[in-house]
Amino acid sequence: MSSSAKQGTLVRSLGLFSVFVLTISSIIGTGIYKKITPMATELGSPTLVLICWAVAGIITLFGTLSNAEVASMLADSGGEYVYFRKIYNKFFAFLFGWSSFTAIRSASIASIGYVFSQSLNLLVPLPHLPASWESFTVLGSFTPFDNFGVKVVTILLIAALSYVNFRGLKLGEGLTKTITYVVMASILLIIILGLTIGGGSFENIQTEATGYVSKSWLDSSLWQSFFVAMLAAFWAYEGWSAIGFLGGEIKNVNRTLPLALIMGVLFVMLVYLAINFTYLYILPVDTIIGNATSANNIAAVGVVGHFLGNGGIMFMSVLILFTTFGCTNTTLLPPPRLYYAMAKEGMFFKGAAQIHPVYHTPSKAILYQAVWSSVLVLSGSFDQLTDMLIFAAFIFYGATALGVFILRVKMPDAPRPYKVWGYPVIPALFILFCIVLVVVTLTSKPREALMGLALMFSGVPFYFYWNRKTK
Fold it and tell me: What pTM did the predictor assign?
C-alpha cells in the first residue's frame, strides 16, 4: 500500500450547537473554581474582584468579536496560523504556531490537568516524594519533583485523553458534550443553593480584606494590581480561540464559527459573574484569601464546604474532576489540527502531517502535544504556567485584532459573512489593551513573561531550518 493510500482526511461533522458546546467546554475549566483566590489576594476588595471579572469578560468579548470577522473570511484547519499567513507573513504565522505548541496550548493542557489532579488529591491523598527531592530545583525556578503525585496523575490524564482524541473527533466531542451538561447543571445548583441556604450576606460583598487601603482610580498602583488580577481572570476566559483550529471539520464554517464563538463567550461571562458573586456572598474575602497559603486548596471547595459540610466538599471535588476532565479533553482536541496544518507546509515536525487512515485524526501531532504538555507539567506550578501562557496568548490576540484593519485595506471587497460590531473602536480598544497587558506583565511578572518569550523564540532556528527545506 502506498503512503498516500494510508493518509486519511478531515471530515466536516460539527454543527453550530456542537461548536457552541465545545467553546463553552474549552473555556470553563479551572479558573471558575480557583482563580478568585489570587484575584482577591491582589485586590482585597470583593467589589473590585467582581468588576475585574466583568472587565475581563468584556475585553475577551472584544477580542472574540474581532477574531470572528477574520474567522468568517479565512476559517480553515489551523485557525490563526492560516489567518496570519494571509494577514502578515510566513514567519509570523510560524511563530504563532510554535508558541502554541511550546507555551500557549500545551501549557493550557498542563494547567487544567494539574487542577484535575489537585481535586483528586482532596478525595484521595496522592503520594509525595521525600522533602529533599521535592525541594530540588532546576535553574533556581523549576521544581519538577514538588507535588509529585499530583504531577504524575496529571501526566496519566493527558495520556488517556490524548488516546481518546486519537481514536476520533466524534468520540472526543461526545465525551465533551456529556461532561459539559453535567457541569453546567451542577454550577447552576451551586448558585441557587449558595444564594438561598448558603448563609451568606451582602455585608460580605461590601467588606474589604483586613489591611485593605482604598485607592483612587487615578492611582497607578491600583491599575497595576487590577491588571495583575486580570491575568488570573483571563486564564478563566482562555481557550475560546482554539476552536478556530477545527475550521476544517466544521459545517458551514464561515457562519458557524463566528456565531458559536460570540454566543459561547457571552454565556461563559454570565456564568462567571454569577458563580463568583456567590462565592463572595457566602464567605468573607479574608477567608477566600486564606486559600492562597495551601498548594492544593481550591477556593470553590472551601465555599461549598462552608454551607454543605463534608458532603459539599465531596460534591465540589467530584464536580471539579468532571469539569477539568472535560476541559482538558476539549483543550487537547483542537491544537493538533494547527500542527497538522504547519507540517503539511513543511514548517513543523514531519510526522505531524499524518492523518490516521481509520480514525481521521492527526495522530502524530496528538502524540507530540501529549509529550510536551507532560514536560510542562513537571516544569512549574499552576499559576506560573497560566501567567506565562496568558502573556504569550495576548500578543497574538492583539495581532488578530490588528488583522481586521489590515484585511479591510488589503481585501476590501472580500466576502465577510460577519463584520465586527463597533468597528473601528472595538478592535482598536482591544489592541490597546493587549499592548498594556503585555507591558504590565513584563514589569510585574518578569519571570513568567521571559519564560513565555524564551519558548516563543526558541522556534526561530527551526523556522530557518524548515524554511530552507521548503524552498
Answer: 0.80
